[in-house]
C-alpha cells in the first residue's frame, strides 16, 4: 500500500488521503491479481 499508493500521491489533507485509500483497497481486493493466490484476486478467493 505504501509503495503503490501513499508514496506516489501528494494528498492535500486527510479527507483526500481517505478517499485515495478507499479507491486503492477496492482495486487491491477486486482487480489486483496476487501471485500467492494463484493469480486470483482476494475477492475471487473469498467469494468464490
Automatic annotation (TrEMBL):
This is Integrase catalytic domain-containing protein. Residues 1-42 form the Integrase catalytic domain. It comes from the Bacteria. The lineage of its organism: Bacteria, Pseudomonadati, Nitrospirota, Nitrospiria, Nitrospirales. It comes from Nitrospira tepida. SUPFAM superfamilies: Ribonuclease H-like (SSF53098). GO terms for biological process: DNA integration. InterPro entries: Integrase_cat-core, RNaseH-like_sf.
Amino acid at each position: 500500500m505504501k509503495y503503490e499508493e501513499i508514496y506516489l500521491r501528494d494528498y492535500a489533507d486527510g479527507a483526500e488521503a481517505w478517499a485515495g485509500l478507499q479507491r486503492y483497497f477496492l482495486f487491491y481486493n477486486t482487480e489486483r491479481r496476487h501471485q500467492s493466490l494463484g493469480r486470483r484476486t482476494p475477492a475471487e478467493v473469498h467469494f468464490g
